[in-house]
Every structure is written in C-alpha cells, then in structure tokens.
User: Fold these one by one.
Assistant:
Number 1:
Amino acid sequence: MSFYEELLTLGQWLQPTDKLALYRFFIETQKDRYVKDARILQLHGELKTSIANGEITYEVKGDYVFYTAKKKNSAEKYENLRKVKLGKISTLTSKRLQKFFAQSEVDVLANFPLPGVNPQEEGGFGFFACPFYDLNYYSNGRGKIIGFFKKLQAKDDELLEKLLAS
C-alpha cells in the first residue's frame, strides 16, 4: 500500500500536517483536472466529483462557488461548507478554484475515508475554520500579513515528498 493510499483510509486520524501535505499534493498533481473542472463549473454552474468515500457537489450562486459534501450512498448532505468568490479575471478565478477544489477534497477525505484499520466515528462534518489557501491559516487567525510571512518561511515537508514519491 502506498503512502497516499494509506492516507485515504485515515479519515479523522489525519494529522494537520498530513492534511496540509495532501492539499499541496493535490495542487501539484491534480492541476490539469482542476483547470478542466473549473471550466466545466463556470460553464454549467454545477460540478460533481468524488474522492475516497465522499461525493462533492460544487455550485455557482451569484458571484460565489459553494460546495456540498456527502458520504457515498447516503442521503445526508452537508451543504454550503465553504465558499469562494469568483473574480472578473478568468486566470485568477481558475487559480482560486483550483485551491478551493484541493481544499474541499482534503475536507471530504478527512470526513469520508476509504475503509481501513482505524475506526471512524459516524456523524458530523469537521474541518479547519481557515482553509489552507487563506493566509490566516498560517498565522493561526492573527492576520493575513503575518500569515504571508509565515507562509514564506514554511518549507516543503517530508510528507509532501513522500506523497510525490508514492
């Protein structure tokens, strides 16, 4: 079993560093798919994807994109979990959506993993208040300027290298 496949089964047992490494991994390895998905979403106003044991539905409502998540083969939905504002410049909007897609996949993966050896608690949907694409994440909510400098100081960690190698 590769390291990536192992992370797909951890769910609530994923550590914050694992989630950040997965986010960066998705940004690097899924870029082409995210660009296509961004075009489809902007053209049709809705997009459905899946990862691990979860399903994601993205919807455009006005100037924002929201995502709804649910466990596969379940009727219970968690609606409007995060939102991102669409911009006027298509290149910036595409980049913003790519980060949004990666974040939503990490959120869903952490809540609806593939079956594995670690027991998962049922019910609820948990995620970090600040997404990885927000500079407030890097400053622990103390402001974007501090977050900008903290992000510059952050180094690629071993987990990302391990994911890329698997």
Note: The chain is about 50% helix and 15% strand.
Number 2:
Amino acid sequence: MNKKYFLNRLLIIGLATVLASCVSPDSNRQSAVSEGREVTLLFTNDFESAFDPIPAYWNPEVEYLGGIAHLATLVDNLREQEKVVFLFDAGDIFTGVLSKKTEGIVPMEMMITMDYDAMVIGNHEFEYGWQSFAKMKDRLPFPVLGANLFYADSGMPYAQAYSIVERHGVRIGVVGVMGQDAGTAIIPSHIRGVDVRDPIESIRPYVELLKPQVDLIVVLTHQGKTAPMQTDDEAHPEIQRGIDAEIKLAGAVTGIDVIFSGHADSGTESPYVHPTTGTLIMQTYGQGTRLGFLQLQLAETKKHSQVIAHEGKLIPVVSNDLPPHPVVAQKLAKYKAQFPELQEILCFSEERVSRLYNEESDLGNLYADIIRAEVSAEIGFMPSGALRKDLPQGDVPLMDVIDSFPFTDLVAELEMTGEQILAVLEQSLTLERGMLQVSGLRVGYDLSRPVGNRVMSVQVNEVDLKLEQLYRVSTVEIMAQGGDLFTTFRKATRIERPDIRFSEVLAKRLREMRTLVIPKRGRLLPYS
C-alpha cells in the first residue's frame, strides 16, 4: 500500500476529530472542581500493536485477554458510566505486523478512533526511524509528548513538551518524558538524530509552569528497565522490573499528582502513593491485557485543586466478555484484508513454541539456529527482548511469525574473538536486557556470582572457547550496532553481505520446514 495514501488518510481522520472536539462546550472550570467532582483517568502503556486477543494460558479462569476492539469497548463503557473521563498512553504503540506493514499508520488510526487525549513517545516509536516519526506525530489530533527529546544537530525540541487538556471544566496539565535507558532499547541508527536528556531536569520547569494553570498535573513516562518479553510475565513476579524510576522522579519533583508509566510493563494492581510527595503512580502489564483506571476526587483550595481521595486498579480486558467495538473492528478487518499474504500457513507445530526472558527458551533456540544457519556461522545470537509472541500450536501463519519478531532488523554477520564472545555472554548474564539465546554454544553459568564473573564454561560446537581465536557470528541488526547495552558487538568486524531482513529469513526457513521441529534444550546451563 502507498504510504502517502495512509498519511493523508491519517491527517483527514485527525482533522475530523479535532473539529468534533471543538464543538463540545465545556462547563465552567471553577464549578466543576468546587463541587468535588470525580475525575476518571484511563491509560494504556506498551500496547505494541497487539491488535488481537492474547491466549491467557497462565490463567485458568480466562481464555483470552486484550484485543484492540475489546479494549475500545471497555473504554466506551467507562465513558458512558463516568462523567469526566480522560484517556492517556505511556508509549510504545508500534511493533506488530500491521504496524510494520504500514510504518505505524494502523496503531495511530486506532488511537485516533479511540479518542486518546495525549501520549508520550516510547522507544519503539522510533522503529521506522526518527525522521519518519517526526513527520507522523505532527499529523495527529492529540499531543505526542517528549519534553526531554531534542534534535542532536540543532538542539531544538524534537516534540511538544506538555499540553493542557480540558473536559467539563477540569483542566489537566500533561507532561511526557522518555527515559535514557529506553533510548538504548532500539536500533541505534534509528534514534541517532535525537538526544534523550535527563527526565527529571526536563520535567521540573514544566510542572512549575503548569501548576497555577491547571487542576491536575499528570506526567506520562516511558522509562525504567526494559520490560521482560514473556507472554505470562504477570504470572512471574520474579521477572518484573519495578517502578523505581517513577518513584525517584516523584520524589525529586514536587507538584506531580499522577504518573502513568511504561517501558517496564510492571503492573501496579493499585496505585503506589509516594510517601513524601503523595504522587500516585500506575503502570499496566502492557499489550492491552489490562486498562489502567484511576478515579480521583478533587476539592478546591485557595490556590489550586487538591486530590482528596482516589481509587485505582488494572481492569482485565477479558475478550470473551467484551463485544468488539464495531468501528474499531471494522477498521482492523479492513487493514488485514489489504495484506492477504499474512494468512499464509508456513508450517505446523505440534505444540506452542514459547519464550522465556531470563533463561533458555524454545523460541529463542529455534530463531538462534535459523539466523546461524542463514550465514553458515559458527555461533548465532538472538536477543530475548526481540521475541514478542509465542508461536501457536497447530497451523503457524505468516502473521504470527512476523509478530513474533516484528522488527526491521537485517541479518548481520560478524567476526569476533573468543574474548569478545565471553564479554557478550557476561553482559547477557547481568539480565539487564534478558538472557541472550544462543546457537552453537554450550554455556555454564552461575547467577549467584558477581556481575562480570558469572560464566563458568563455554564450548563452541563441543570445543572449549579459545579467547584469541576468531569465530564467525550471526545476529540481528540491533545487536550488531551495539544496542540493548551489548556494546561489545560494535568492536567486532562486520562482514559485508546482501541485505535481508531477519523476518524474511524466518518465513523462508519455516516454510521449508513444513513441520516445525523444536530444538532440544541444554545450551544455557545454570550451575546449582
């Protein structure tokens, strides 16, 4: 499909939404707050174009969670039930096959249709390059925020820093920031033209500016440690990342009423209340499986309004209990119909092929084997954070395969010393970005040992790793450029080869398999 057509369509939809909002008269601000009105704030984070429901195999009481059309119905239901409702997003709406096919147009159109009030830029908004998103964000009818993002060459702001949104007399000042850690969780060349500055220092002046003008200050953040890419992560609290970055921010900047955060996918079943500033902090598990809900009771003081009571929760988006929103479902079906090739069945799998973030996994082994075989390398590396969906039991369509690795990465071939490979493995075992999945290696490790000294043994195709020897290695582009904190890869020698995307290699290799064979485990071995 023609990208110019998509962008023009997005602009038309956006203008229509703006015009519609302009004809809705707002009530007087003073009366709205002085009556002690309730304000309901809804939010999402890290949706990552998870348009279809996700099998909730870890929850025996629920068959499916999420799905954009079901989420839209839940949002509409709450808008009908509550009088004053705002809807925000804390970043990472891109990735996923339909986003990839249209370079972000589909998720943007869905957000417009659902009438979001504001979003913050996440690292995956740079999936198609910082130049592409710079053009796209300015076509949207709602503010796309990034107070700490600046053009690297000119020092000019890359995005709008804040916005004031108003409904029924309630005025909310919204500021958005992306964390510096998040800025490393993308192919480096895709964000090279943007500087990510300190979030705390970037937010502080805008909170001071907005406080006298508004009833509430909401900060949208996309920061902290990168989320664990594991379908059932909410069932495994030991791999949750936490909200430490938000707690630090709330303590450093007074005057923030609410922080809605993303990037870590660390679900807060109820709001965290900062002990010194009273800031309320919330985050969902991502992928649209929950809708964040925060209801505030406001009272007027002499200087400004005050939150006197709150109730917050994460509402499960139980797909079978929520009929699909007709308009959203129709648009989703329309886009799927434009790419019929996505329904091609590539192979058959006897069982679900699953991911694990901090240990060896079936999907990780399979994809590491495939990228190694593509260039006949001795070693293959696959980042756990790049694996975004399990492959289903039964027929495996192309759509699921691309969703499992929804990025634009090329296959990269490198020449690395044994010493560099050891350094990469030690970085992997910090678990900062999950455990690297490997092919051609057998690694013994001990996570109880100090960082940098956790590798106990390494064999390359059953022969001990030699530190001075050169090895041929295959991996994906983000690794080759030293992204995800794996900077050692940048020191390797890049071997020139024809450009081919790893998603294309996956489709080719799985098509050839017909019946998917899951590799045996036993490559990453923890010492007891």
Note: The chain has 15 helices and 27 strands.
Number 3:
Amino acid sequence: MYRKQLTWQKILCFAAIAVSAIVFLYALGLMTDLYDSLYYTMMDPSNPDDTWVPGSQIYYHMQPYNKQLLTASIVLILLSCSLFLTSTHSRRRYYVGNILTSVAWTGAGVYYSIWAHGQSEAFKAEFLKISFADLEFFSEMMDTPYIDSTFWFDAHYVVFALVLLVGVLLIANLCWKFSLMSAEKRLIEEGKKVA
C-alpha cells in the first residue's frame, strides 16, 4: 500500500508543477489576442479614452489583473517547488513542512481560483461591450487581426478547475498519508513488520 501511495504523491507533486506552469502560460496568453486586436485602435496610448473602437479600453483595464495573475502563477510555481524541497514527493513519513506546503499550495490554489473566476467573468462582460462592428471595420481598414472570441476568458474554467483538482488531490493524499502513518505506528507498537 505504501508503494502505491508513494507513487501517487510523486505524481501529484509533478501535477502541481505542471498545473502551475499552465496558469503561467494562461497569464501570458490572456493579453496576447487583446493586444493584437485592440492596441492599435488607441489613437493616443497615453489616453485610453481616445480610441477608434468604443470599448477597446478593456486592454488597459485588464493590465493590472494580468500582472496579478502572472504573480499568482509564479507564487504557485514556487509553492510547487517547495513541495519538492520538503521532499513531499518522496517522503515515507510526512512532517510539519510537508503538511504546510501541501496546505499552502491548496489554499493558494483555491484563493487564486475564486479570485480569477470573478475577475475573468467581469472582464468578459466588459469585453462583450466592445463595438465589434467598429472593430471589424478598423481591422479591415488597418489590416490588423479581428478577434471577437471569448476563448481566453472561457479557458479560465479549465485552467482553474485543474488547480482546484490538484489542490483537492493534495489534501486527499495528505489524509491517505496520515491513515498509513497511523496504521504503521499501530503495527510497530504491536511488533509487526510494515509492508
């Protein structure tokens, strides 16, 4: 039973790093389409209200959120690395550091998921207020990309569902580890060999 659990905890730690990297890539990709489509509609970049396309100011409104999302992804990556630094991926017995890093990753993941969902939905609603007829006309006139897709806003459901899934599995792994540790302790007290 211990071997299965050890294999499982290793997979989970690698999954935490992979999902954190996905959040990082999502943060990088989120603004790319908006930049390609909306940046050139601004007549004066120092004055976002001076635009060819009503509603295109969302590009500027989303900048702080995108920076915070990028920071959140880096925090998740660092917390994932801390899982490896505390040997959460390979340790037979968990100690305080293993518990803290697992709980910290899960807590951060839940917090960022809830926060990002609220922000993404608010910005999606703002994005849909863009005058797409004006944007299409501008794109044809200036030969810039025309984008009316909400893909990047909708992708947050998948990205942060993965974050929540890994968080839940880290806590489930923690509970499984505790039950195995208490069973091992009972066997040792009874003088039996642990398999």
Note: Residues 151-189 form the longest helix (39 residues).
